[in-house]
Amino acid sequence: MWMQHVEQQVQATPSHVSSSGYAWLDQDAVSSSSGNEEARTASNLATSTEFGDKILILKFTRCGQELTRALHEGSQLETVRAALTEAGHSCILRSGASIFVYPQQYASIVSVLSDVNQRPHHVIVAQAFLPFVYQEVAQIPSKRNVRLASATEFAIVEGDLGEAICVVDRTFYNALPLRLRNAASVTQSTSEAPPNRSPNIRRFIQA
After folding, report:
1. Which domain of life is it from (predicted)?
2. DSSP assignment letter at 200
3. How far apart are CA 164 and CA 32, in angstroms?
4. How many angstroms separate the CA atoms of 5 and 9, rounded?
5. Average of per-residue pLDDT across 137-143
6. Which of 30, 40, 125, 161 has the fewest C-beta atoms under 10 angstroms from its C-beta?
7. Which position has the higher pLDDT, 35 or 119?
8. pLDDT bracket for residue 42 (50, 70, 90)
9. Given the DSSP bridges, would you call strands 148-158 and 52-60 parallel, antiparallel or unpaired?
10. Where do runs of H (alpha helix) occur along 126-203?
11. Rg for the chain, CA atoms, rounded
12. Of 138, 147, 140, which Cα lies nearest the Cα of 69?
């Protein structure tokens, strides 16, 4: 049922901001982003529907201490970072790329990122959190030349549990429904132990 509506959801142009993405965040952070034109534009695109949440890969013109500090110390994304940390996830991947998604989506998204070029100037983000990423980056002094170079739709994650994921492949969407085996049912990997926190690939099975 979900796959039959994916393309409709992708092509649809929402006329309002979905409340589900923002109810999860601090309301002060939402209101403070209203003064930034780029954040307002992004918020108009933010969607979280019955078909799933869009996941994008942002590429910035450069990466440095300014971008890292803005994304990982700024107040706008504080709630997102705290939720991921509480769930045992890192907001910085091994590649150096940053990731800001719902905790229940994290494992599914990371499991399909292996074939994607990731560098420290990349940010993987749930579309509901785009305004907060833009708001943080907008505070970096312009002389640092940190600007958004591109935003590419990478996937759609379906369901409250984030277990089904549909990945963009040459403009098509490939469904990759995944679920996790119980950790006790597979040979354990040191990658799942702190500080790595990477999901053991043996735990992924086709749904």
Report:
1. Eukaryota
2. P
3. 33
4. 6
5. 94
6. 161
7. 119
8. very low
9. antiparallel
10. 130-138
11. 17
12. 140
Which uninterrupted H or E stretch holds 73?
A: helix 65-73
Phi then psi for residue 27, to 5 deg, are -65, -30
Buried b (16+ CB within 10 A) or exposed e, 98-115: bbbbbeebbbbbbbbbee
Distance of alpha carbon 199 from alpha carbon 107, whole angstroms: 6
State the helix-helix crossing angle for 78-86 and 103-111, rounded to 10 degrees.
Answer: 80
Residue with tokens 């509901």: 128
The tokens of 3 are what?
């796959």
How far apart CA 16 and CA 58 sit, in angstroms, is: 22
94 in helix, strand or coil? coil
Residue appearing with tokens 């305004």: 131
- Name the nearest CA neighbour of 53 among 79, 83, 21: 21
Task: Grade residue 103 by pLDDT with cuts at 50, 70 and 90.
Answer: very high
Q: Where are the domains of the chain?
A: 18-27+50-206
- For the record, the structure tokens of 31 come out as 């209101």
In terms of C-beta density within 10 A (0-12 exposed, 13-18 middle, 19 or more buried), how is residue 179 classed? Answer: middle
Distances (CA, A) of 5 to 38, 90, 98: 29, 32, 30
Structure token digits, residue 154: 């990478």
